[in-house]
Design goal:
Length: 349
Amino acid sequence: MENQQNPKQEASRKTTSVKRLKELTKHEDKYVRKKIAKNIKTPLSLLKKLTKDESMTVRESVAGNINSPGSLLEKLADDKYDYVRESVAGHPNTPLTILKKLAVDKKWTVRTHVIRNKNTTLSLLEKLANDDEWEVRRNISVNESTPISILNKLVEDNNKHVRQGLATNTSTPVELLVKLVDDEDEYVRSCLAGNPNMPVTLLKKLLKEKSCKSNLAANVNIPALLLKKLAADEDKNVRLKVAKNLNTDSNVLKKLAIDNHHKVRESIAENPNTPPIVLKKIAKDESWWARRNVAKNTNTPVLVLEKLAEDEDSRVRESVAENANTPVLVLEKLAEDEDSRVRESVKRN
Protein backbone atom coordinates (compact mmCIF):
# COMPACT_ATOMS: atom_id res chain seq x y z
CA MET A 1 0.00 0.00 0.00
CA GLU A 2 2.86 2.39 0.84
CA ASN A 3 4.14 2.45 -2.77
CA GLN A 4 0.70 3.40 -4.06
CA GLN A 5 0.66 6.68 -2.16
CA ASN A 6 1.67 10.08 -3.51
CA PRO A 7 5.51 10.12 -3.60
CA LYS A 8 5.73 13.71 -2.34
CA GLN A 9 3.48 12.91 0.60
CA GLU A 10 5.50 9.80 1.36
CA ALA A 11 8.74 11.74 1.23
CA SER A 12 7.37 14.33 3.67
CA ARG A 13 5.74 11.94 6.10
CA LYS A 14 7.57 11.24 9.35
CA THR A 15 6.20 7.68 9.45
CA THR A 16 7.55 6.62 6.05
CA SER A 17 10.00 3.76 6.43
CA VAL A 18 13.72 4.29 5.88
CA LYS A 19 13.58 1.65 3.18
CA ARG A 20 10.95 3.60 1.26
CA LEU A 21 12.78 6.92 1.76
CA LYS A 22 15.89 5.30 0.33
CA GLU A 23 13.94 4.19 -2.74
CA LEU A 24 12.52 7.71 -3.18
CA THR A 25 15.99 9.29 -3.20
CA LYS A 26 16.27 7.85 -6.70
CA HIS A 27 12.98 9.40 -7.83
CA GLU A 28 13.20 11.39 -11.07
CA ASP A 29 11.20 14.29 -9.59
CA LYS A 30 13.59 16.62 -7.78
CA TYR A 31 10.76 17.88 -5.58
CA VAL A 32 10.25 14.38 -4.18
CA ARG A 33 13.94 14.25 -3.32
CA LYS A 34 13.65 17.75 -1.86
CA LYS A 35 10.89 16.55 0.49
CA ILE A 36 13.19 13.79 1.71
CA ALA A 37 16.00 16.29 2.25
CA LYS A 38 13.67 18.42 4.41
CA ASN A 39 12.20 15.50 6.36
CA ILE A 40 13.49 15.58 9.96
CA LYS A 41 13.19 11.78 10.09
CA THR A 42 15.50 11.23 7.14
CA PRO A 43 18.57 9.33 8.40
CA LEU A 44 22.06 10.77 8.14
CA SER A 45 23.08 8.24 5.51
CA LEU A 46 20.43 9.53 3.11
CA LEU A 47 21.12 13.18 3.88
CA LYS A 48 24.76 12.49 3.08
CA LYS A 49 23.74 11.00 -0.26
CA LEU A 50 21.50 13.98 -1.08
CA THR A 51 24.36 16.46 -0.53
CA LYS A 52 25.62 15.23 -3.90
CA ASP A 53 22.24 15.53 -5.62
CA GLU A 54 22.33 17.20 -9.06
CA SER A 55 19.53 19.56 -8.05
CA MET A 56 20.40 22.76 -6.22
CA THR A 57 17.03 22.86 -4.47
CA VAL A 58 17.63 19.40 -2.98
CA ARG A 59 21.07 20.35 -1.66
CA GLU A 60 19.64 23.57 -0.27
CA SER A 61 17.05 21.56 1.65
CA VAL A 62 19.77 19.35 3.12
CA ALA A 63 21.55 22.52 4.24
CA GLY A 64 18.32 23.67 5.86
CA ASN A 65 17.50 20.39 7.62
CA ILE A 66 17.83 20.97 11.37
CA ASN A 67 19.43 17.54 11.76
CA SER A 68 22.20 18.08 9.23
CA PRO A 69 25.50 17.79 11.13
CA GLY A 70 28.49 20.08 10.79
CA SER A 71 30.32 17.55 8.62
CA LEU A 72 27.64 17.73 5.90
CA LEU A 73 27.31 21.49 6.18
CA GLU A 74 31.05 21.82 5.73
CA LYS A 75 30.80 20.09 2.35
CA LEU A 76 27.83 22.20 1.28
CA ALA A 77 29.66 25.39 2.24
CA ASP A 78 31.59 25.04 -1.03
CA ASP A 79 28.48 24.67 -3.17
CA LYS A 80 28.54 26.78 -6.34
CA TYR A 81 25.04 28.09 -5.69
CA ASP A 82 24.73 30.93 -3.17
CA TYR A 83 21.27 29.75 -2.02
CA VAL A 84 22.86 26.60 -0.65
CA ARG A 85 25.66 28.51 1.03
CA GLU A 86 23.11 30.92 2.54
CA SER A 87 21.33 28.00 4.22
CA VAL A 88 24.66 26.72 5.54
CA ALA A 89 25.55 30.19 6.87
CA GLY A 90 22.30 30.38 8.82
CA HIS A 91 22.32 26.81 10.18
CA PRO A 92 22.79 26.43 13.96
CA ASN A 93 25.02 23.38 13.44
CA THR A 94 27.49 25.13 11.18
CA PRO A 95 30.97 25.09 12.82
CA LEU A 96 32.64 28.41 13.61
CA THR A 97 35.45 27.63 11.17
CA ILE A 98 32.88 27.47 8.36
CA LEU A 99 31.12 30.63 9.54
CA LYS A 100 34.46 32.44 9.32
CA LYS A 101 34.89 31.17 5.79
CA LEU A 102 31.38 32.22 4.77
CA ALA A 103 31.87 35.64 6.36
CA VAL A 104 34.13 36.47 3.42
CA ASP A 105 31.98 34.75 0.80
CA LYS A 106 31.90 36.47 -2.59
CA LYS A 107 28.11 36.82 -2.34
CA TRP A 108 26.96 39.48 0.14
CA THR A 109 23.68 37.66 0.85
CA VAL A 110 25.66 34.72 2.23
CA ARG A 111 27.55 37.05 4.53
CA THR A 112 24.27 38.48 5.86
CA HIS A 113 23.15 34.97 6.85
CA VAL A 114 26.31 34.65 8.93
CA ILE A 115 25.20 37.78 10.80
CA ARG A 116 21.87 36.16 11.69
CA ASN A 117 23.50 32.96 12.95
CA LYS A 118 23.33 32.82 16.76
CA ASN A 119 26.73 31.15 16.88
CA THR A 120 28.50 34.04 15.17
CA THR A 121 31.10 35.50 17.53
CA LEU A 122 31.60 39.14 18.48
CA SER A 123 34.91 39.29 16.61
CA LEU A 124 33.23 37.99 13.46
CA LEU A 125 30.44 40.55 13.76
CA GLU A 126 33.01 43.31 14.21
CA LYS A 127 34.66 42.18 10.99
CA LEU A 128 31.36 42.16 9.12
CA ALA A 129 30.54 45.62 10.48
CA ASN A 130 33.38 46.85 8.24
CA ASP A 131 32.13 45.00 5.17
CA ASP A 132 32.42 46.90 1.87
CA GLU A 133 28.76 46.23 1.04
CA TRP A 134 26.32 48.52 2.82
CA GLU A 135 23.64 45.79 2.70
CA VAL A 136 25.80 43.67 5.01
CA ARG A 137 26.39 46.52 7.42
CA ARG A 138 22.68 47.36 7.40
CA ASN A 139 21.83 43.79 8.38
CA ILE A 140 24.02 44.31 11.42
CA SER A 141 22.50 47.68 12.23
CA VAL A 142 18.91 46.34 12.23
CA ASN A 143 19.76 43.18 14.16
CA GLU A 144 18.42 43.49 17.71
CA SER A 145 21.12 41.14 18.97
CA THR A 146 23.99 43.29 17.72
CA PRO A 147 26.19 44.36 20.66
CA ILE A 148 26.08 48.06 21.57
CA SER A 149 29.83 48.36 20.96
CA ILE A 150 29.22 47.65 17.27
CA LEU A 151 26.13 49.86 17.06
CA ASN A 152 28.30 52.72 18.40
CA LYS A 153 30.51 52.40 15.34
CA LEU A 154 27.68 52.13 12.85
CA VAL A 155 26.06 55.37 13.98
CA GLU A 156 28.85 57.15 12.12
CA ASP A 157 28.47 55.02 8.97
CA ASN A 158 28.58 57.04 5.76
CA ASN A 159 25.71 55.11 4.21
CA LYS A 160 22.22 56.36 5.05
CA HIS A 161 20.65 52.88 4.80
CA VAL A 162 22.91 51.63 7.59
CA ARG A 163 21.92 54.55 9.81
CA GLN A 164 18.27 53.96 8.93
CA GLY A 165 18.65 50.43 10.26
CA LEU A 166 19.95 51.82 13.54
CA ALA A 167 17.03 54.24 13.72
CA THR A 168 14.51 51.39 13.51
CA ASN A 169 16.38 49.00 15.80
CA THR A 170 14.57 48.77 19.15
CA SER A 171 17.86 47.77 20.79
CA THR A 172 19.60 50.99 19.80
CA PRO A 173 20.42 52.83 23.05
CA VAL A 174 18.93 56.28 23.70
CA GLU A 175 22.31 58.02 23.47
CA LEU A 176 22.64 56.85 19.86
CA LEU A 177 19.06 57.82 19.04
CA VAL A 178 19.93 61.32 20.25
CA LYS A 179 22.80 61.46 17.77
CA LEU A 180 20.57 60.35 14.90
CA VAL A 181 17.81 62.90 15.55
CA ASP A 182 19.89 65.52 13.73
CA ASP A 183 20.92 63.19 10.90
CA GLU A 184 21.22 64.80 7.49
CA ASP A 185 19.00 62.15 5.92
CA GLU A 186 15.28 62.79 6.14
CA TYR A 187 14.37 59.10 6.11
CA VAL A 188 16.70 58.35 9.01
CA ARG A 189 14.80 60.89 11.09
CA SER A 190 11.50 59.46 9.86
CA CYS A 191 12.56 55.97 11.01
CA LEU A 192 13.44 57.42 14.41
CA ALA A 193 9.91 58.77 14.72
CA GLY A 194 8.56 55.23 14.77
CA ASN A 195 11.07 53.82 17.26
CA PRO A 196 9.17 53.01 20.51
CA ASN A 197 12.24 53.82 22.62
CA MET A 198 12.44 57.45 21.53
CA PRO A 199 12.29 59.90 24.46
CA VAL A 200 9.29 62.25 24.44
CA THR A 201 11.57 65.28 24.11
CA LEU A 202 12.93 63.93 20.83
CA LEU A 203 9.47 62.99 19.58
CA LYS A 204 8.38 66.59 20.14
CA LYS A 205 11.32 67.77 18.08
CA LEU A 206 10.41 65.48 15.18
CA LEU A 207 6.80 66.68 15.34
CA LYS A 208 7.87 69.72 13.35
CA GLU A 209 8.94 67.60 10.38
CA LYS A 210 6.31 66.64 7.82
CA SER A 211 8.09 63.44 6.82
CA CYS A 212 8.08 62.20 10.43
CA LYS A 213 4.43 62.73 11.29
CA SER A 214 3.06 59.46 9.92
CA ASN A 215 5.54 57.32 11.87
CA LEU A 216 5.05 59.47 14.96
CA ALA A 217 1.30 58.88 14.81
CA ALA A 218 1.92 55.12 14.64
CA ASN A 219 4.47 55.05 17.48
CA VAL A 220 3.15 52.73 20.19
CA ASN A 221 4.65 54.83 22.97
CA ILE A 222 3.78 58.32 21.80
CA PRO A 223 1.89 60.29 24.48
CA ALA A 224 -1.76 61.27 23.99
CA LEU A 225 -0.91 64.97 23.99
CA LEU A 226 1.21 64.64 20.83
CA LEU A 227 -1.45 62.46 19.20
CA LYS A 228 -3.96 65.23 19.80
CA LYS A 229 -1.79 67.62 17.77
CA LEU A 230 -1.33 65.08 15.00
CA ALA A 231 -5.09 64.48 14.82
CA ALA A 232 -5.45 67.96 13.33
CA ASP A 233 -2.90 67.32 10.58
CA GLU A 234 -3.96 68.04 6.99
CA ASP A 235 -2.58 64.70 5.82
CA LYS A 236 -5.27 62.02 6.04
CA ASN A 237 -2.62 59.30 6.42
CA VAL A 238 -1.39 60.94 9.61
CA ARG A 239 -4.93 61.19 10.99
CA LEU A 240 -5.47 57.56 9.97
CA LYS A 241 -2.52 56.45 12.09
CA VAL A 242 -3.82 58.51 15.03
CA ALA A 243 -7.19 56.82 14.65
CA LYS A 244 -5.54 53.40 14.93
CA ASN A 245 -3.20 54.26 17.81
CA LEU A 246 -4.23 52.71 21.13
CA ASN A 247 -2.86 55.74 23.01
CA THR A 248 -5.32 58.14 21.40
CA ASP A 249 -7.69 59.46 24.04
CA SER A 250 -11.48 59.30 23.77
CA ASN A 251 -11.96 62.99 22.99
CA VAL A 252 -9.68 62.76 19.97
CA LEU A 253 -11.38 59.56 18.84
CA LYS A 254 -14.72 61.33 19.09
CA LYS A 255 -13.45 64.19 16.92
CA LEU A 256 -12.01 61.86 14.28
CA ALA A 257 -15.29 59.94 14.13
CA ILE A 258 -16.64 62.77 11.96
CA ASP A 259 -13.52 63.10 9.82
CA ASN A 260 -14.19 63.88 6.17
CA HIS A 261 -12.22 60.86 5.00
CA HIS A 262 -13.95 57.49 5.27
CA LYS A 263 -10.75 55.55 6.02
CA VAL A 264 -10.18 57.60 9.17
CA ARG A 265 -13.74 56.91 10.35
CA GLU A 266 -13.31 53.23 9.51
CA SER A 267 -10.17 53.07 11.67
CA ILE A 268 -11.94 54.77 14.57
CA ALA A 269 -14.65 52.10 14.33
CA GLU A 270 -11.97 49.43 14.56
CA ASN A 271 -10.06 50.90 17.52
CA PRO A 272 -10.80 48.76 20.63
CA ASN A 273 -10.67 51.89 22.81
CA THR A 274 -13.37 53.78 20.93
CA PRO A 275 -16.20 54.61 23.39
CA PRO A 276 -19.64 53.04 22.80
CA ILE A 277 -21.24 56.45 22.21
CA VAL A 278 -18.83 57.11 19.33
CA LEU A 279 -19.43 53.66 17.85
CA LYS A 280 -23.16 54.32 17.97
CA LYS A 281 -22.63 57.36 15.76
CA ILE A 282 -20.38 55.57 13.25
CA ALA A 283 -22.94 52.76 13.01
CA LYS A 284 -24.93 55.12 10.76
CA ASP A 285 -21.93 55.93 8.54
CA GLU A 286 -22.36 55.82 4.77
CA SER A 287 -19.30 53.58 4.54
CA TRP A 288 -20.25 49.91 4.82
CA TRP A 289 -16.68 49.20 5.94
CA ALA A 290 -17.07 51.60 8.86
CA ARG A 291 -20.37 49.97 9.85
CA ARG A 292 -18.78 46.53 9.55
CA ASN A 293 -15.94 47.58 11.87
CA VAL A 294 -18.51 48.81 14.38
CA ALA A 295 -20.22 45.43 14.13
CA LYS A 296 -16.89 43.73 14.91
CA ASN A 297 -15.92 45.99 17.81
CA THR A 298 -16.39 44.41 21.25
CA ASN A 299 -17.26 47.85 22.68
CA THR A 300 -20.32 48.17 20.50
CA PRO A 301 -23.54 48.33 22.58
CA VAL A 302 -26.06 45.51 22.17
CA LEU A 303 -28.73 47.91 20.88
CA VAL A 304 -26.37 48.99 18.09
CA LEU A 305 -25.60 45.36 17.21
CA GLU A 306 -29.33 44.68 16.98
CA LYS A 307 -29.70 47.57 14.57
CA LEU A 308 -26.72 46.50 12.46
CA ALA A 309 -28.14 42.98 12.25
CA GLU A 310 -30.68 44.53 9.85
CA ASP A 311 -28.08 46.37 7.77
CA GLU A 312 -28.57 46.30 4.00
CA ASP A 313 -25.01 45.08 3.48
CA SER A 314 -24.53 41.37 4.17
CA ARG A 315 -20.90 41.96 5.17
CA VAL A 316 -22.07 44.09 8.08
CA ARG A 317 -24.59 41.46 9.17
CA GLU A 318 -21.88 38.81 8.89
CA SER A 319 -19.72 40.75 11.36
CA VAL A 320 -22.63 41.07 13.77
CA ALA A 321 -23.01 37.29 13.57
CA GLU A 322 -19.32 36.91 14.51
CA ASN A 323 -19.40 39.32 17.48
CA ALA A 324 -19.22 37.47 20.81
CA ASN A 325 -21.53 40.07 22.39
CA THR A 326 -24.39 39.60 19.95
CA PRO A 327 -27.51 38.42 21.85
CA VAL A 328 -28.90 34.94 21.24
CA LEU A 329 -32.17 36.28 19.84
CA VAL A 330 -30.28 38.30 17.23
CA LEU A 331 -28.14 35.28 16.32
CA GLU A 332 -31.27 33.17 15.90
CA LYS A 333 -32.62 35.72 13.46
CA LEU A 334 -29.33 35.88 11.55
CA ALA A 335 -29.27 32.07 11.38
CA GLU A 336 -32.07 32.43 8.83
CA ASP A 337 -30.39 35.22 6.86
CA GLU A 338 -30.64 35.12 3.07
CA ASP A 339 -26.84 35.23 2.79
CA SER A 340 -25.09 31.89 3.40
CA ARG A 341 -21.94 33.58 4.79
CA VAL A 342 -24.03 35.22 7.51
CA ARG A 343 -25.62 31.89 8.42
CA GLU A 344 -22.21 30.20 8.55
CA SER A 345 -20.85 32.94 10.84
CA VAL A 346 -23.69 32.29 13.28
CA LYS A 347 -22.70 28.62 13.45
CA ARG A 348 -19.09 29.58 14.28
CA ASN A 349 -20.07 32.04 17.03
